[in-house]
Amino acid sequence: MEEKQLNVSLLIGNGFDIAILESLKLKYTTTYKEFYDYLTYFLVNKNNSIYMAINEKKALETDDNWMDYELLLSELVKQKIEALERISNFQNKKKQYEVFLEDWKEIQYMFADFLNHVITPDILKQVTQLSGKGTLKRLLGDLTANQYKNIAFPSKTTHHIEMDFHIFNFNYSSLVDNYFYWLFDYHPYNVSTNNFHFAPNPQSFPNLKSKYDQNTTFYMRSSMNIYHPHGRLSIPESILFGTTNDIPAYIKEKNNFNNELLQKLDKAYWARLDEKMQPILEKSDLFVIFGQSVGESDEWWWRQVIHRLAEGSELLIYDFKKNSLKEKFLSYCEGSKEIKKEIEDRIYVIDFDNSKKLKYTFTF
């Protein structure tokens, strides 16, 4: 039976922002190191406990990325909880708790200042002129011939179906939003509701399940949906740092400092992932991961995608400089060799680097 609707979910991380800012040959990007340098220069309160922890880690280790920062916050919260448990006086405990929250908010606002410094309105205008619509149209273009031979998604496409794009922007900026934004004309034709063109086989590779070539273009009805599960730069206090796994059931006990600190870390709780995001992921036919480190702080997402892959959907992973992202992703299969074996052939890795450029998608 021919499918009438397809759903494509793109999970976009900070590697996107870095790549697009570099492509514009800008002086600054959004790397963790650059944020650390900004914080070190502009933060007035050097006694901020979170900054002190960041600074200590920086002195001990050379590896620096955002996942490390979120794991550092997780460890810092655990240490703070242990410290609060050793304080018997309620007022002293409350004071220590409030000081930590102020430290947290100070770093949060400094991060917002940093992003506003790096990403100006003029940069957003430049990004809007780039080819996000072309990326969606030629979404399968950077697969190799061997990969394209086996992927099932092209065979699901045809004229006059609906293809809905769900873009999960894990970043706090709106670079992703501006790149993919285009003004839909919902009625471009007098006798059709189609508003999008999709190329199922940009390189004319053979496919076991379809006979399309580079001249094939399908006329479809499409919609664009963009989500910010981790918060937005325009609302600094919405910016979420933390983890999305193994958070205990703290909600039942209110007015408890320990529980409230744990809740502070829970991105899944604040983003209402189970309620808002899971239903979208569950109906996705194709996933695209770009600019992600596939780190454990976002484990909730990887487990959701794995669940859907086991039901037959497929995944494109863009792996910059061959960081073994497929292997990292498969490590979240909860020790199930059966699930891992079942889904690994539905994962297609697109390797690229500064010398091996992408030709059809994310061509900044």
The rough form would be described as: globular
Radius of gyration: 22 Å
- Average pLDDT, rounded to a whole number, is 88
Low-pLDDT ranges: none
In sequence order, what are the helices and strands, one letter per element? EHHHHHHHHEHEEHHHEHEHHE
Beta-strand fraction estimate: 5-15%
Q: Based on helices, strands and strand pairing, what is the structural class?
A: alpha/beta
What composes the largest sheet?
7 strands, mixed
Number of helical segments?
A: 15
Task: Give a count of the beta strands, DSSP E runs of length 2 or more.
Answer: 7
Strand order of the largest sheet: 3-4-2-1-5-6-7
The end-to-end span amounts to 38 Å
What level of helicity do the residues show?
A: 40-55%
Describe this protein with a few key phrases:
7-stranded mixed sheet, 364 residues, alpha/beta, 43% helix, 13% strand
Q: Your description of this structure?
A:
The chain is globular and about 75 Å long. The model has no long low-confidence stretch (mean pLDDT 88). It has 364 residues and is an alpha/beta fold. Helix content is 43%, strand content 13%. Strand 5 (286-290), helix 13 and strand 6 form a beta-alpha-beta unit. Helix 2 packs across helix 5 and helix 3 (49-60) packs across helix 4. It has helices at residues 14-23, 32-42, 49-60, 66-85, 90-118, 121-128, 132-137, 145-150, 175-180, 257-265, 267-271, 273-282, 299-309, 325-330, 337-343, and strands spanning 5-12, 162-169, 196-198, 218-227, 286-290, 314-320, 347-352.
